[in-house]
Here is the input.
Amino acid sequence: MIRVEHVSKTFYVPQEVKALDDVSCEIDKGEVVVIIGPSGSGKSTLLRCLNRLEFADSGHIYIDGIDVLSPRTDINKLRAEVGMVFQSFNLFPHKTVLENITLAQLVVRKRKKEEAVEKAMFLLEKVGIPEKADAYPDQLSGGQQQRVAIARALAMDPKIMLFDEPTSALDPEMIGEVLDVMKTLAREGMTMVVVTHEMGFAREVADRVIFMDHGKIVEEGTPEHFFTNPIHERTKLFLSQIL
Amino acid sequence: MGAQGGCKNLKMTANKAKKHSYPHYYLWICVFWGVIALGIIVLYVSTLKIEYVWRWYRVPQYFLYKASIEIRSDIDGDVKSIKSEGGQIIVKIEGPSGSETYKVKGKGDVRVSEGDHVFTGDVIATYQKWKPGILLYGLYTTLKVSIIGIIFGIIIGLVAGLARISENPAFKWWSIIYIEIIRGSPLLVQIFIWYFVLGTLINTILAREGLQQLPPLYYGIASLAFFAGAYVAEIVRAGIQSIHRGQMEAARSLGMSYAQAMRYVILPQAFRRILPPLAGQFISLIKDSSLLGIIAIRELTKATREVVTTSLQPFELWFVCALLYLILTFGLSMLMQYLERRMIVS
Ligand SMILES: Nc1ncnc2c1ncn2[C@@H]1O[C@H](COP(=O)(O)OP(=O)(O)OP(=O)(O)O)[C@@H](O)[C@H]1O
Ligand SMILES: [Mg+2]
Here is the structure.
């Protein structure tokens, strides 16, 4: 489903940082992959390269056989198939919850109004806050906002969902409600790539865990492998710090 | 913007008045009014010294005046009847080549009586009518050029502002050059260029093609629009850049194109932040439009100058002129505050 081949990305401003250094990996359909690693290790950059929010300097990325980095690829069409959930929610503050979820359906998917609203209500039901349809984002708690953001991404019927630390900006008591939505999604067979520090989630839901450091994939394997006998020193060190 | 700040200050002094916390508060209030009164007295006394006679009563006629309007006969004939009917006087004239009726409104003064013979062009009646004076026309022209100027200025500014933040090098550099040229040269010179250079070019070409020439008003409005456009472009750019980049990323990640993201996500949010500085720009434009008098556009300042030369009452008229600008600008900033408050509520 996703194939990443020798991808590198360097930032030059404010200083030269090799955010991704010859990264290769493959993610199958229906797989839930959790990416962990210390801050600045390139997790977000990898995720953002997948839907070309960041343009990789070199290498190849294929999603469903489509070459993401080719200038001939219709990037908007591709992005509609790849949902993304951000750490800071990024809901549209001037639109109601319902409008947040219908906007892209209307302008990108060209759905009819009723169809888009029906879909939005269905998804709000799914993430557990149908009563907030007419509220504005700043009237919601962080956990509710993030669930709306997930519903917004799901409204496009994506084949893949990318999550970049979806619970890092939340108060502890709200983390559970967002993780529950993600678990349901995983159970339904969604292909998911999740950057998170929630090791409980990784252990319970992930099919595979990838550990990154300094722009490289250091180690990958099943959660059991990871949490019981990691091979690399750096992985051990990181896990000892975080667990 | 300036008036807004002033208003806040006033509110602050009002708060202080309740607390009287400032030492010798009432003394300073007296000083405040005293100095203003002193200024007015000094001005008045010095005008007396040069034997200037204040004639405020001469000012209103330049706003509204009673014009005497004559109704003239279009035919030769005899006055058949003069009837008063529903507040009007109806004069009927019958001649060899047909008949004609004239209605005289209100307290008209009929100059003929029944049986009189009238020739074509004879005055049948006169009546008085209120007509706007030259200052009111000037005010209207000032408002008109400013409003049309700011509307086109906003359109130009939106395009230039979007081009300015575009990654396309051609759009970006055109925009930068435009903004820098406009902001780096005096408006007066720009008006001259629009009128004497571009105006001459365009009008000469139009004349060659046998088309009608454009009046100075067009060039005046163009100069204001392009002038305001450069400032609006910077306002738009700043407004767009003040929106968190996560908004653009979220919109793009959903598959929206750059244009769709701008239109549905970024610009509506930026608009709220753009509106106050935009109103400030409009207020400056109203004041800047006073320069258009030099290319024979009779806006408020030019109108005042003309009235001064006929009335020989420069002191009153220039104060009135300033006051009229103040009413426009202050009224506008009050309106903006009201709109802003409403937007915060909604
Ligand atoms: N837009 C950017 N411009 C410049 N440098 C960047 C940019 N984005 C990321 N970087 C740098 O690239 C490196 C990798 O960043 P990245 O955000 O991928 O790390 P991360 O693993 O997601 O870290 P975190 O856990 O803090 O989110 C960091 O050193 C970061 O400073
Ligand atoms: Mg990150």
Summary: Chain B touches chain A through 18 residues (CB under 8 Å).
